[in-house]
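Box S1 | Example of a co-folding query
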Amino acid sequence: MLKAKPFVKWAGGKRQIIDKLLKLVPVEYNTYYEPFVGGGALLFELSPKCAVINDSNKELMNVYKTISTDKGYEETLKILNNYEKKHDEAFYYKIRNIDKDKVKFSKLNDYERAARTIYLNKACFNGLYRVNSKGEFNVPFNKKLKINTYDGQNMTLAYVYFQTNKITMLSTDFEEAVKDAKKGDFIYFDPPYDSENDNTFNSYTEDGFGKEEQRRLAKVYKELSDRGCYVMLSNHNTTLINELYKDYNIHVINAKRNINSKGEKRGNVEEVIITNYEVDIEFED
Ligand SMILES: C[S@@+](CC[C@H](N)C(=O)[O-])C[C@H]1O[C@@H](n2cnc3c(N)ncnc32)[C@H](O)[C@@H]1O
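Box S1 (continued) | Returned holo structure for S-adenosylmethionine
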């Protein structure tokens, strides 16, 4: 079966460690939950029949919701074809700056907003999603003169996947998103990264995700584990994460990171994948 791949480039996207994640996924489970879905690398790879996906980023979740309906899918692609023709630096800033006018922005319909989000993702620097304190998208142009905003076959695969399976889409806080998870369900948490020092790029939305949020997430992890769910979580190999999840199985892996506020810090960073169930595996590289 052909599977879709992420249709947006997303900070912390998991395509690079997907093989390692797959080795740690439980053999069988009921509903799949991904409360920090981002680009949805693991979601598409597993393509579960029943899933609950969530991200606090409303514009991102509007893309998922829109392209899963007939009209939304068709209209979004129509607009993107038009944007590709008009694409240049001035056009990028024209589309980017729509959210500076709150009234104009509120008049966009779902597929105009979805097309804008996909277009900005493909035409902005490094596929970053960053907004200022007023909630206005502020990532600069990536200077590419020609862009492909979507891969036709991939978009169709994503649309068909959403149409033919039972996928609930939410845009709320992670804790709310998993409240109905039951024994036998599988939850994969991929939160914004923790860092030993606090200058790593991790403000995906207006809210940010600090140490207190990491602690709150660890409590939710424990509650779900005690409820009999399978729970997997990825993060950096930091002191805090090791302390918070010391009662579970911590698998250390190497991952290449591309997005960092300081260029010189790019490179290999140790990541951990934590499971509340035993998996007999050791990663060597
Ligand atoms: C590391 S990214 C997820 C990457 C994703 N697994 C992928 O493969 O592309 C973390 C995501 O968490 C979202 N987020 C941040 N705070 C959140 C919260 N409190 N509840 C839900 N989602 C949140 C961000 O918008 C971001 O998309």
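Confidence is low (pLDDT under 50) at residues 202-206, 260-264. Strands lie at 32-34, 50-54, 166-170, 186-189, 230-236, 249-257, 267-275.
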